[in-house]
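Moderator note: this is an archived Q&A kept for reference. The question asked for a predicted structure of one protein chain; the sequence and the answer are reproduced below.
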Amino acid sequence: MAPENLAGRSIAGYRLLERIGEGGTAEVYRAEHPERGACAFKVLRERLRGDPIVVKRFLREAGYGSRVVHPGVVRTYDFGESDGLYYLALEWATGESLADFLHREAPLAPADAVALVRQLADALAAAHAAGIIHRDLKPENIMYDPSARSVKLLDFGIARDAEQPLEERLTRTGFFVGTLQYVAPEALSGELVDGRADIYSLAKIAYYMLTGRHPHDGRSPRELFQQLLSGKATPLSVASDRKFAPALEAAVMKGLSRQPGDRQATVSAFADELEAALAQTKDTSKSRGILGALKNIVGKRNSE
């Protein structure tokens, strides 16, 4: 059965121009609004509109996104139901997915990687301050604008309200949600997680930015699952021929600790540690450069 194509229709004041993508639950369109201009417009798939749990989860995503207002988070304009269609209208983010950019350009220079980590940490901190845990942080859920070298966080589809009562959870205990390559180990049992799960995912993104590789290299989902539960992440320096400052490697690997309590306390603290390590590296390099210049001067004078 061919998927429906709503291009050309107007829904809740948005003119759908063309279908640009699809996910597990929704079709995505490029749309125009008379006041907001270009928008991304998500519509719940036709076959899922009769499932009350799916509908509730879809609208929950919209509600979570609307609570987070930050330059590093794609803005939620509108959401609801119109003529039997459940929709979500979002800010149009220019650029490409961070996944596509990293697939082409990784590994990045440490300074560039740390700058992007800081932007993502600031966006996540805003979400956490609003009581929202993302739970599905990965390069595919991040837009990258190469002209501005900026990132925007999107897709709160499996986010969780930190204050949500147990009886209102929409996932069952014992079933994890997220993407296996980036999910925190404590989420694998399906238990409730806090902001430290997002720290783990951000550390994995930082690791991939710096090395072009993942810290766990399981060849199958089963093997990867076991590595996440019991295996140690490959040290940053082992995964790459590049030499990293010990403080930078220590900060990334701390974020990848299996136990949440062994990680940094917040996403901001994680970014702070990476920036401090980078600054320390620059200061050391500058000192070595000055020392080298002085040695050259002294050497020339002694030879005269």
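Archived answer notes: Residues 165-176 have pLDDT under 50 and may be disordered.
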